[in-house]
C-alpha cells in the first residue's frame, strides 16, 4: 500500500522533502494552515501570534499539564492563499539553528490536494539530529508496521 | 553506476520494500525471490542490484547459487532514522484531515 505521507531525505543534502496527499479540497487544506483556531487543533499547540502576510511573523507554544514544553517561532516571507507559504522556523531553547521552509499547496482533484514541504537546514548534521531527536517511541510503531507487512506476504 | 546509491531512494519503491521484507525472514536466491512477484525477472534483478549497491542486501555464494540476505544493521539504521519522523508527520496530517472534515461538515 502506498504511504500517504512520504519523507525524502537524501544522504548528502541538508534538506528534506515531506509530501502528503489529502482527502480534502485545496481550500480546506490551506485553511488548516491559515486559521489559528484550526491550526491549534491539528498541531495540538497554542498560537501566540500568526500574521499571515509578507514580513509577518508567528509563534506558538505547546504545554503539557500546564508546563510549556515547546516553543517555536518564525518569519513569513511569502504568503499566497491556496498556493504557498515560505517561512523560517525556529525552536526556542534548543541548540537547533533556524530552518527555512517552503510549503506548496496544490489541487489534485476537486476534493483532493497535495502539500509539499521542502525544509532546508543549516547543515546535514543538524538535519540528521533533528530527525532522530524526539521520536524514540516511534520506533516501536515502525516495527509493528513492519510485522504487519511481513504477515501479509506470508 | 552508483546513481542509485541513495538508500532512501532505494526504500521508496514498494517492490523493493516487499523484497526486503521477504528476504528478512530467510536468505533466498534471486530466482526464489522473483517467483514471489508478478514482475519480470530482469526487473527483479535490477531491484536486487540496487538494494545490494546501497548495502541493504548482502550476497553470499553457496555452491553454484548466490543467496541474498538482509543487512540487519543497515536496515535498522534506515528504519530508525526516517520512520519515526515520517510517522510523526503522518499522525499530524491525519489529524489535520480529521479536523478539517469535521469543520467542513459543520458549515
What are the SSEs and their pairings?
The complex is a heterodimer of chains A (154) and B (107).
Chain A: E1 5-8, E2 15-22, H1 26-34, H2 36-43, E3 46-50, E4 57-64, E5 67-80, E6 84-91, E7 99-109, E8 112-120, H3 124-132, H4 138-153
Antiparallel strand pairs in A: 1-2, 2-8, 3-4, 4-5, 5-6, 6-7, 7-8
Chain B: H1 7-12, H2 14-25, E1 28-29, H3 30-34, H4 41-53, E2 57-62, E3 65-70, H5 72-106
Antiparallel strand pairs in B: 1-3, 2-3
Largest sheet of chain B: 3 strands, antiparallel
Average pLDDT rating of chain B: 83
Count the helices of chain B. How many?
A: 5
State the order of secondary-structure elements of chain A, H for helix, E for strand: EEHHEEEEEEHH
Distance between the termini of chain B: 56 Å
Radius of gyration of chain A: 17 Å
CATH structural architecture of the largest domain in chain B? Orthogonal Bundle
Strand order of the largest sheet of chain B: 1-3-2
Low-confidence blocks of residues of chain B: none
Radius of gyration of chain B: 18 Å
Looking at this structure, what is the CATH superfamily of the largest domain in chain B? Winged helix-like DNA-binding domain superfamily/Winged helix DNA-binding domain
List keywords for this structure.
heterodimer; A: 154 residues; alpha+beta; 8 strands; B: 107 residues; 2 domains; three-stranded antiparallel sheet
Amino acid at each position: 500500500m502506498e504511504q500517504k505521507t512520504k519523507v525524502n531525505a537524501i544522504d548528502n543534502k541538508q534538506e528534506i522533502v515531506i509530501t502528503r496527499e489529502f482527502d480534502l479540497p485545496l481550500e480546506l487544506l490551506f485553511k488548516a494552515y491559515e486559521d489559528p483556531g484550526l491550526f491549534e487543533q491539528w498541531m495540538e499547540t497554542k498560537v501566540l501570534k500568526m500574521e499571515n502576510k509578507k514580513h509577518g511573523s508567528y509563534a506558538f507554544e505547546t504545554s503539557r499539564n500546564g508546563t510549556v514544553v515547546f516553543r517555536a517561532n518564525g518569519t513569513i516571507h511569502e504568503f499566497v492563499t491556496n498556493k504557498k507559504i515560505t517561512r523560517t522556523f525556529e525552536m526556542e531553547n534548543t541548540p537547533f539553528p533556524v530552518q527555512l521552509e517552503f510549503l506548496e499547496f496544490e489541487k489534485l482533484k476537486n476534493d483532493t490536494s497535495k502539500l509539499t514541504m521542502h525544509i532546508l537546514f543549516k547543515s546535514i548534521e543538524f538535519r540528521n539530529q533533528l530527525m532522530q531527536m524526539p521520536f524514540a517511541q516511534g520506533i516501536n510503531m515502525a516495527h509493528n508496521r513492519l510485522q504487519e507487512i511481513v504477515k501479509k506476504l506470508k | 553506476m552508483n546513481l542509485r546509491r541513495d538508500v532512501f531512494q532505494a526504500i521508496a519503491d514498494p517492490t523493493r520494500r516487499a523484497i526486503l521484507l521477504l528476504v528478512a525472514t530467510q536468505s533466498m536466491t534471486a530466482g526464489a525471490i522473483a517467483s514471489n512477484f508478478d514482475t519480470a525477472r530482469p526487473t527483479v534483478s535490477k531491484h536486487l542490484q540496487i538494494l545490494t549497491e546501497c548495502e541493504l542486501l548482502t550476497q553470499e555464494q553457496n555452491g553454484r547459487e548466490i543467496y541474498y540476505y538482509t543487512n540487519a544493521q543497515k536496515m535498522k539504521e534506515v528504519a530508525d532514522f526516517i520512520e519515526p519522523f515520517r510517522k510523526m508527520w503522518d499522525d499530524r496530517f491525519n489529524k489535520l484531515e480529521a479536523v478539517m472534515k469535521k469543520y467542513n461538515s459543520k458549515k
